[in-house]
């Protein structure tokens, strides 16, 4: 049975359920498919990395700092993207952005803290 490879378009002989002329084309096809999914992931990764970059720049060497919300907004901080949520003992919600965390302190301000790096020493 004559078939057309869905990766390279070459005709080849094979079973009805075969879609590729070779294992090479099959691998390439699957690789590209994975990359396609990666693009969607990349967009959100970009927001998260940018968020971390903004916090890192604002914080400098500080461990704890209060910022006007507008400062973060102007830097294009995306409040809706974070890597996790943490509820502290006082019931305050912290939004984690990698090794930083921010908490809505008031309508106008956010508190940013740097997580201690003690857990990092193990790696
Ligand atoms: Zn092929």
Characterization of the model:
- The protein has one domain.
- The strands form two sheets. It has a five-stranded antiparallel β-sheet with strand order 3-7-6-5-4.
- The protein has helices spanning 23-59, 69-74; strands spanning 2-4, 11-13, 64-68, 84-87, 93-97, 100-104, 109-114.
- It is an alpha+beta fold.
- The protein starts with a strand and ends in a 9-residue tail after the last strand.
- The chain is built from two helices and seven strands; from the N terminus they run E-E-H-E-H-E-E-E-E.
- The chain is rod-shaped, with a radius of gyration of 24 Å.
- The structure holds zinc ion.
Shape: rod-shaped
Strand fraction equals 25-35%
Overall pLDDT level = 90
Order of secondary-structure elements = EEHEHEEEE
User: Which cofactor or ligand species appear?
Assistant: zinc ion
Q: What is the total number of structural domains?
A: 1
Tell me the total number of β-strands: 7
Q: What proportion of the residues is helical, as a percent range?
A: 25-40%
Radius of gyration: 24 Å
List unreliable stretches of 5+ residues.
119-123
What is the count of helical runs?
2
Placed side by side, the strands forming the largest sheet appear as: 3-7-6-5-4
The helix-and-strand class reads alpha+beta
Quick one: biggest sheet? 5 strands, antiparallel
Distance between the termini: 55 Å
